[in-house]
Amino acid sequence: MQSRSFITGLAGPTLLQDERAFLKAAAPWGLILFARNIETPDQVRTLVADARAALGWNAPVLIDQEGGRVQRLRPPHWPNYAPAETFGALHGRDAAAGLRAAWLQSRLMADDLHRLGIDVDCLPCADLRLPEGHGIIGNRAYGDAPEPVAALARAAADGLLAGGVLPVLKHIPGHGRAPADSHERLPEVTAPRALLERTDFAAFRLLNDLPLGMTAHVVYADIDPAAPATTSRIMMGEIVRGLIGFDGLVMSDDLSMGALAGSLAERGRAAMAAGCDMLLHCNGMLSEMEAVAAEAPQLEGQAGARAARALALRAAPQPLVRAEAEAELAALLGPSGGA
């Protein structure tokens, strides 16, 4: 069966019978895992394998494994990893060391993921850390200037790709200046367009060749005061595809977040109409999953081509001596480990 243009979450650590039936019938392009889906390595491998068996193909499986506050895989089974700001601080002291450390951490995270069958990581964040921004980004940002942020994000993306894991660039075109948490309510950025083009948007423009991207549920009032980027034809067409020049597959951020208005069906329709290639729904509630699935078209045309190009980058991991990589990363980060 041909896939449809959405990515879905699951309720818990095992695949339920109604979820199995849903996956077979609705044919989402991919899955996304959260902490509620994670217990042990063997359990995660089984969940991933069961879900792929229900879908009938080697569908992409996503996770948010950034390091710092946002990491779904945690001790005791997986390491604690440093937040992005650690690499930004190191880069400020020694650019080469910062880039190498960002690459190494992503390469190690990719090794963790690949062992579980997870092949897409929602990393890197190219959002800037700016004074007016809400703490939801905070130390998830590499810094406050577009060039070093983009360089570190590139290193992180390259580390994932070297480990056989696809990166997802987020949150296009920039969440760092948003004064509210979009999980809870809709943020509005009032900065002038010219400033955004020099700063927030510039970081993403330097990364416009990455294969996958995720939108920001943020209103940029000087460009489109009526709708957040996810559901704005102006933002998606003129800024994301135009000014930034991103031609990878663009997925919405989670449609169940508090920033968006209307029913799940209305949100899905609006995101697709704006120009998103893929809908993302994360909370694992089956009734909501079904509502999103009903609005997701067949994955074809330009969106299908972008999806195919992204999946073509999935490759066997390059050689890694894990102990050596861990030791090198620890030496670069220093006694605290940056966590």
How would you explain this protein's 3D organization?
With 339 residues, the protein is of the alpha/beta class. The protein has a single domain (4-331), classed as TIM Barrel (Alpha-Beta Barrel), CATH 3.20.20.300. The chain is built from twelve helices and twelve strands. The protein has helices at residues 17-26, 41-55, 84-93, 95-116, 146-162, 193-198, 200-205, 233-243, 264-274, 286-295, 301-311, 322-333; strands at residues 4-8, 28-33, 61-63, 65-67, 70-71, 120-121, 166-172, 188-189, 212-215, 219-220, 249-254, 278-281. The protein has an eight-stranded parallel beta barrel, surrounded by five helices. It has a two-stranded antiparallel sheet with strand order 4-5. It has a two-stranded parallel sheet with strand order 8-10. Helix 9 packs parallel to helix 10. The longest helix is centred in the N-terminal third of the chain and has 22 residues, at 95-116. The protein is globular and about 50 Å long. The model has no long low-confidence stretch (mean pLDDT 97).
What's the tally of helices? Answer: 12
Order of helices and strands: EHEHEEEHHEHEEHHEEHEHEHHH
Our measurement of the CA-to-CA distance between the termini, rounded to an integer number of angstroms, reads 44 Å
Helix content: 40-55%
